[in-house]
Amino acid sequence: MVAPDIAENGAVVPVGAVSKLPNTTDIMIIVEKNPSPLAAAFTIPAGTNADVQTRIKMGQSSNVIAVVKADGKLYSATKETKVTLGGCGG
């Protein structure tokens, strides 16, 4: 899970996730305190590196969670990100 400790603008928070687990098929980015927690979802084609980067909106400081599906099991990593200027209507 890659996310900043402090995001100055909640409207464009850069995040990413990398999975070294074999047979990774999906990566989801979840923002715990957003009105719609699922911020991004990626399907990873077979034979490719499971490495995704994107920008998300965060309404307030929150945990950002990367959920990886590999071999039919779910794994997660969490990073707390503080937002100084809200992006979801703030």
SSE layout and pairing:
Elements: E1 6-7, E2 13-19, E3 24-31, E4 38-43, E5 50-56, E6 62-70, E7 73-83
Strands of the largest sheet, in order across it?
1-7-6-3-4
Global Rg: 13 Å
How would you spell out the order of helices and strands?
EEEEEEE
- Provide mean pLDDT, rounded: 93
What structural category arises from helix and sheet content?
mainly beta
Q: Give the low-confidence spans.
A: none
**Strand residue content:** over 45%
Estimated helix fraction: under 10%
Major sheet details: 5 strands, mixed
How many H/I helical runs?
A: 0
Overall number of strands:
7
Shape: elongated
Characterize the structure shown.
The protein is an all-beta fold and 90 residues long. It contains no helices and 7 strands. It has strands at 6-7, 13-19, 24-31, 38-43, 50-56, 62-70, 73-83. The strands form 2 sheets. It has a 5-stranded mixed β-sheet, with no helix packed on it. The chain has a two-stranded antiparallel ribbon with strand order 2-5. A hairpin with a 2-residue loop joins β6 (62-70) and β7 (73-83). The chain is elongated. It starts with 5 loop residues before the first strand and ends in a 7-residue tail after the last strand. The mean pLDDT is 93.
